[in-house]
Amino acid sequence: MSxxxxxxxxxxxxxxxxxxxxxxxxxxxxxxxxxxxxCESKFFNYKNEHRNKTPLMRKEGKLVPVSYDEAIHxxxxxxxxxxxxxxYGWSSTDxxxxxxxVELAEEIGGVLDNTAVVCHGPSILSVQEVGIPTCTxxxxxxxxxxxxxWGCDPWSAHPRHLERYTTFTEGRFKxxxxxxxxxxxxxxxxxxxxxxLERREIVKRKPEPIIEKVTxxxxxxxxxxxxxxxxxxxxxxxxxxxxxxxxIQVEQGKDYELMLAIRALVKDHELDVDQVAGVPVEYxxxxxxxxxxxxxxxxxFGMGLxxxxxxxxxxxxxxxxxxxxNRRTKFAILPMRGHFNxxxxxxxxxxxxxYPYAVDFSLGYPRxxxxxxxxxxxxxxxxxDAALIVASDPASNFPRKAVxxxxxxxxxxxxxxxxxxxxxGDVVFPAAIVGIEKAGTAYRMDHVPxxxxxxxxxxxxxxxxxxxxxxILEEVRVIKSQRMQEAA
Amino acid sequence: MVQQKLRVTLLTGRTIEQGVGKEAGKxxxxxxxxxxMCYMDAGDMKKLGIKNNTxxxxxxxxxxxxxxxxxxxxxxxxxxxxxxxxxxxxxxxSSDTTGIGTPSFKGTxxxxxxxxxxxxxxxxxxxxxxxxx
Amino acid sequence: xxxxxxxxxxxxxxNGINGEKMDIAVKxxxxxxxxxxxxxxxxxxxxxxxxxxxxxxxxHIAGAEVNTGRLMRPEDHIKDTERKTTLTRSGVGYSIPSxxxxxxxxxxxxxxxxxxxxMPPLEAKHTHEELNDTPMLDKxxxxxxxxxxxxxxxxxxxxxxxCARYVAWMIGTTKGYAIKIVNPGGxxxxxxxRNVHTIxxxxxxxxxxxxxxxxxxxxxxxxLNLPHTIHVHTNNLGLPGNYATTLDTMRALESVATDxxxxxxxxxxxxxxxxxxxxxxxxxxxxxxxxxxxAHSHITCDMGQVIxxxxxxMTADGPFEYTLYQLSGHKWVNSDVETExxxxxxxxxxxxxxxxxxxxxxxxxxxxLMIEDPWKIYLTTDHPNGGPFTAYPKIxxxxxxxxxxxxxxxxxxKKAQKKSLLPTLKRELSLYDIAIVTRAGQxxxxxxxxxxxxxxxxxxxxxxxxxNPETTxxxxxxxxxxxxxxxxxxxxxxxxxxxxxxxxxxxxxxRTIWLDVQTAEQVKVDEEMKRRFREYWTVEYENYPVTDHxxxxxxxxxxxxxx
Lengths: 488, 133, 563
Known about the structure:
A: Dimethylsulfoxide Reductase, domain 2, 5-stranded parallel β-sheet, globular, C: alpha/beta, about 30% helix
């Protein structure tokens, strides 16, 4: 029997596309419509052999199957005994689980942190310094005639961003530039296919001439004309850059410089140098003309700013540039949030505790000081004595030195799949996949909340993150009250 | 003249293949292939005298790892190498949070040398070599 | 559960009860005629003041805007923390407290019901998720509808009935309670960085004026029989000379008023009552505004009192926040929402020695004292815009005591002192008046039939304060009153004692009140509507509504509309 479910929200990236149409046969997704490659990969692979099927516990060095009851009791015992546990992850689960997470962190006096700490944490710090002029993605679709992606590559990380929200969409006041780009896109796709064939050595071709020098081209004439424009600024020519009207290759680590130069030009200062960060100033002047003359401009930025030297200072200066530009025209800036619900993790943590990430409950009230209460720092200082990881894979995504301390202490992992962290864990819970096997809520990169659907049943007996966490919390309270009674 | 070693700056980040791989599952071949590789500038590869898909060793002050070198197809990026997010990248990238909580995932100084005969460790092997589990 | 509150001085203005010594009986969460004398738990309220639970008609406590304010201001929280206890969750203050702390602090002051006045429909789920985590209180929200493209388009076409159907649909869809209008026309203009400056300016790209939006929605409000009126944040808010715009607005709405009943609530009136031509000559326009309101019956309003403290301003009025940004250079959040509204946030420190800030402080009190009928103007700070709600007891002090306000005025900027009308105002509010401006009047304006009074059948939401009206000269002993209203002797929510001596003794969850407006003909949800949805928003029709999942305790009120 085959059924179709429409308006499904895709639980992969911060775009949170909610127009996915799934065809389900015998409880299995057999067709995915409207999704990108990552979306299809998620919906087609959720039941593959790498799925964890039962709770596991490390006994004599090996992970062995146990019951949920045993694993929950063990996990609760670890957390109730810990002096300074960390509770990390959260960005790939729903807000409902995140709410329980905050309560659990408070109950055990732990450090609650989410993956923002390794992606857009610096952006949050910048918002706390200078604020942020921003908007929902639909505003950009309806109004923006200048879209700039800086240090981010949506065609790789947020594949449908351009077609759903920015340059290629049809808005009320601004039309799509889709047709113009189609040729470019086709050309690029053709090239990609060829490359992939070459890689697999199916087709032998002479390699193209090697481009050995970085050259920043003169902006095209069209940059100053009406119509939607797409500009990419990055240290390397990305997939998005290939379809852009204008690509500026900035020298690595010099985004701050380039941004300051643009700020100066927006304020009508003259620059006494010929080049900034590898970009001729005369080109920058044309870029700035396009910026101040647009009706509505927007900068999207990514890890290119937050992970490079300067980190939150890079974002500071980007936001400050937008503040300046708003004196001339309308401009907005948005971070390209990665995981589908990292925004939700920040949101839930903020409304319950006042702080978006790196929240330390060890004193009985929320305390926040990234650099001190952030999880990587806690690990590097070797202060934590247990960890609960939910829907995340720090063993893959944290620097090695941080992981060393993580695995040196009791490690509890809740994740649908056996990832690197789960392989290293002491108690490992399988979980239902949020957005496929469990309904919930997630926040899009622009803070728009969207419902996640349950489209198929989870494997028999598999609980959701929310249920597992609630049961651990309950068990922790039981253990603590028993201890109080014993003490009395 | 072919060089033995090349000093470069290490960037880590996302690729669509890594994204597809991680959604398929961290134990999959797609994930392994898309994260145990390293994009290099074509000119830099010429300097080292290596071809596409040659194994290389990338070393930083944090450690060293063997990866598959892949020519960056879209343009020049001399002096930069790009490893997709994953356990291989994190085996060597900087853990310095510069006092704000976020490690320095981009801009770590690194050294590249051709090691055509060294194997790339699988995920399990890598974890065992790093953490003994 | 039965409860008997014995022997208190009861202030229940809706029933005309002014400090009479009487008993209040409670059973199963409601006020009843009598309870079993032995079974009932008794509270000895001898020598204490008993009032209905406090009602706040306008306070920003939940949702996207508030939470972004929290996120951007760790410096606001660090000085004000709440420890976890066996009964309560931890949290932080100060001007934008975390959700649990918000609930506890209101409850400690004897408040039991709040209205969250600024809900972007697209982000309504967020608002409701936060309201679920705001304990101790019943809550409702006003969706922002004044610049919603559907409203602009139908009003432009003159199709009031269709407009009304869509407004009804939207209120139900977002689980909202009233029509909120903020700087009508200005927010759509702000989409391209512009604004409107009079109520007759044309909105760019739309053939409509603020006057037409407000009058149109006021008529829609009547056609739908909504319990509250339209809730209006005027054009030009926060700018010198804007009292003229406010008068224009109120005059424009006269055309809708036919039965002598209010048709509009002008919120945080202080911010809309500035006279003068620029910041240098800025002075109070309270006299003119109060005079108009005294002479007409179609307007209610609330104060929007300014408190001298560091707070966080936040409003859907994006262009106004941009003005504040230009004035202060402070960190600035702007947040426009597609098809619907905008928003902005700026931290702000109101200072006594700033002539404009001090004048603002004075204007709000002038309005509250010069508008003769307390049923027309209610106590608010537009939390947290004028200051955090925890300052309400201070405002009560200023209202009941000329001595209190003169003491503060004396410390204000000389220029503001000279221009202030306060020295000429002798009026001092009684406890009866205070009961009107902090609960009865607000409940009445909101059409909350079972709140704000203590008649049989009402919700057993009760506040008991440690003030003896017989022995206390409140104007002189205003500090005693302030302390009492800051720390309720008892707060009773749905018949349960939740606060005793200013401390939480029980954590309870409140209801979310919303309107199920039933129109004879309903909005057609067909493929055409879904297509339009996709065109206007970046989400699918199916994912837009706030479903029951997002309401912890749902309290729908069914309304029969005339269309």
